[in-house]
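Follow-up to my post from last week.
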Amino acid sequence: MDTPWLDRPQLSSWVRLRAVLELLPGVLDAQLRRDADLTEFEYYVLSTLSETPGRALRMTELSWGTNATLPRLSHVVTRLQKRGLVERFSCPEDRRTTHVRLTDDGWEKVRQAAPGHVAIVHHHVIDVLTDEQIRQLAAISDAILARLDPSETMTATYTRYDEPPKPQTRDVK
Amino acid sequence: MDTPWLDRPQLSSWVRLRAVLELLPGVLDAQLRRDADLTEFEYYVLSTLSETPGRALRMTELSWGTNATLPRLSHVVTRLQKRGLVERFSCPEDRRTTHVRLTDDGWEKVRQAAPGHVAIVHHHVIDVLTDEQIRQLAAISDAILARLDPSETMTATYTRYDEPPKPQTRDVK
DNA sequence: CCAGCAAACTTGTCGCGACAACCATTCCCG
DNA sequence: CGGGAATGGTTGTCGCGACAAGTTTGCTGG
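User reply:
Got it. Predicted complex:
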């Protein structure tokens, strides 16, 4: 097996990306925990629901919008439910499914947490990049996601939730 | 408090970056666990040591090179030590410090794991980007890191290990 | 020269996420 | 129209990382 090593520019880019992957989530998470007593992931669950008409989604749809596995989401929803921020309910149409709805408390929570979170995203990402770089970053992320997530579950996030993520060939090959 | 919201291009870029942050580490981690029985972080600890003259570093220096807190690193080193991949030893010069050295087994482990890991980095990141985008990504990551890690601990990674990370104002403010 | 502070780790506890196993419902097809 | 597969979700277990003490060694100033 001939090893395709990384040349200088590639290595340089990868090392830096890796550092971002390692450090950025922690910073965002810490801010939300401190100021809103929420995980970043919890925040995005609430946030996703808050942006949905009816403030409710099926578990599976919610998992598409938040890049989560179903088990993980289920645990998180359980915790949020215990705190009264969301509620589960089932639809008689398909009794396998569970729907999650944002409660008024959950809505209020998101309203209070959003400014701080947006501010830190601005401070650590948006503000340090030029408009040009922001466009570049979108394109780069898109390219990586296309390979990472061939079903394009993610890129559908801010568009639709109405169709399943195509043949799920999520093989790490 | 007037909230500086995200406009369309910014939001688009952030949503995609977030998805990458969420998904990419898991994919890399899964490959290493499966093929080498190593965490990605464990791999980078071993890898960092393997690239160091003498294949040894102080704990603190090692933490600079791997973006880890000292407690985390300490735990990981303990595990690696139990598996015989690294060994701790102390230097009489400053008896507070602990040094970590890659064992022959550890060296062999890294040698075996590297090709697979490099391959998946190629497949998921390098190969989907143009040379131009790789340069852009390095610049973007640099900008984010500069804010994230004002001490520039990270950018020093592939250069030097010999000086402390300047006044540690790692305030999440 | 010693008191107090800082540096360098280590250890313990807790919570979240991955994975696997499981249950319920629905779909598909002979 | 009945039986197996597929879909949708939940639960249990385990391991790693964050955070908060605690410990030892070195440093510095009065």
